[in-house]
Amino acid sequence: MTKRELKNQRIKETLAKTRKKRKTQKCKVFELKLDASHFNSNTKETLKMMFVEAKWLYNYYLSQEDIFKIDIKIKNIIRKNREGLDIKAELKYLPYKFRSSVLKGIQNSVKALSTVKKKGGKTGRIKFKSSYNSIDLDQCNSTHRIISKSKIKIQGIKQCLRINGLKQIKEDYEIANAKLVKKANGYYIKLTCFEFIKDMSSIGEEKPDVGLDLKNRNITKVKN
């Protein structure tokens, strides 16, 4: 067995173990707001440019002939300026893992459309974006890491960021993937957690959960 085959085998075994474990857990998603009042100037610029570069990269990937044959390590791309002209742009703020998630998102969309088409359904074309508002943080302790009950670290940003509502995350929760979200009123982290089900007889029952932003007293829905 080659090194590549061994690696693929280990990945399959890990995924199988994770799927088995998830059957004994309940998923909860918390949307928590980053405290912008503590951002330094570098953090403000980095957060802004992450989403700008993610949009550039998304549109660049989408303009390529074969979305499944792209060099994801590329740092220099071609983008459109306000006049619609092609100009060169260097990716300075968007970390490699985030670039990979942008490409993966497009590839998943293409696969989904292909599946619908094969089943006889009507499909359109994936459209270019005028803005990019959600960046996947797909690896806990790498792309994102909780530092304390009030701070989180995000890859690519030097400053540890204050965040409201982290006290909702219990010590026995398993923190999984997250999303960095940009809204009109600020930046948010949409954090996915898993909690072991104590009463296994409750599996399959849907009960609405509510999360409380302890600082702002705002009620946040938590998806099961």
Structure description:
The chain has three helices and eleven strands, in the order αβαββαββββββββ. By secondary structure, it is of the alpha+beta class. The strands form four sheets. Strands 1-9-8-4 form a four-stranded antiparallel β-sheet. It has a three-stranded antiparallel β-sheet with strand order 5-6-7, with no helix packed on it. The protein has one domain. The chain has helices at residues 3-22, 41-62, 96-118; strands at 25-33, 76-80, 86-90, 134-137, 144-146, 151-154, 161-162, 174-183, 186-196, 209-213, 218-222.
How would you sum up the major sheet?
Answer: 4 strands, antiparallel
Give the termini separation: 41 Å
Tell me, what's the shape?
A: globular
Q: What is the residue-averaged pLDDT? A: 85
In DSSP terms, counting alpha (H) and pi (I) runs of 4 or more, how many helices? 3
The ordered H/E elements are: HEHEEHEEEEEEEE
Strand order of the largest sheet: 1-9-8-4
Number of separate strands: 11
The low-confidence runs, each spanning 5 or more residues with pLDDT under 50, are: 206-224
Any idea what the radius of gyration is?
20 Å
